[in-house]
Write a structure and sequence with these properties.
The chain has 146 residues and is α+β, with helices and mostly antiparallel strands. It has helices at 3-7, 34-37, 92-106; strands at 9-23, 61-65, 79-91, 111-120, 124-128, 137-140. It has a six-stranded antiparallel β-sheet with strand order 2-3-1-4-5-6. The longest helix has 15 residues, at 92-106.
């Protein structure tokens, strides 16, 4: 990936399920990153988003608790089941960095189910995370006419 591509801005959205749910303690390393901790979502997971979400104010990157895991004695969720993203005008390099941080924190004992969608100036497609891999895979689905 060249510097020009790394600086391009994208809109990125979607939900990735973490399976099995990840103990919250494993994600404390991300606690200093405001992008992940604007708000810890307490709303239930919704169906996979195929279209960009409405413009309602939501955190750009949020962890959604596993409702079945309950909470600890301080009311914090015991485990995280989903990573939900709705980030507008973020660089590809920043998306890569955040997803690598998530993959590193989650560890190889958890699988990622789902994908993120992205749209950019010249391309659009999907981003996949693979278990045991620290690198997100960008797949351009822009129709090419030549």
């Amino acid at each position: 990936m060249g510097n020009e591509e790394a600086s391009l801005e994208y809109s990125v959205w979607g939900t990735i399920e973490l399976h099995p749910p990840v103990p919250l303690a494993q994600l404390w390393g991300l606690a200093d990153q405001d992008a992940f901790w604007d708000k810890l979502a307490t709303t239930p997971h919704e169906a996979d988003e195929l279209e960009p979400p409405a413009t309602a104010r939501q955190p750009a990157w949020e962890f959604v608790p596993d409702e079945d895991a309950g909470t600890d004695d301080q009311g914090r969720p015991r485990a995280i089941r989903y990573l939900r993203v709705n980030d507008q005008d973020v660089t590809r390099a920043e998306v890569d960095r955040r997803l690598r941080d998530v993959a590193r924190s989650v560890g190889a004992n958890h699988a990622f189910h789902g994908r993120l969608r992205y749209e950019g100036y010249t391309d659009d497609g999907e981003i996949w995370l693979r278990s045991g891999s620290g690198s997100p895979v960008w797949r351009d689905t822009t129709p090419r006419y030549w």
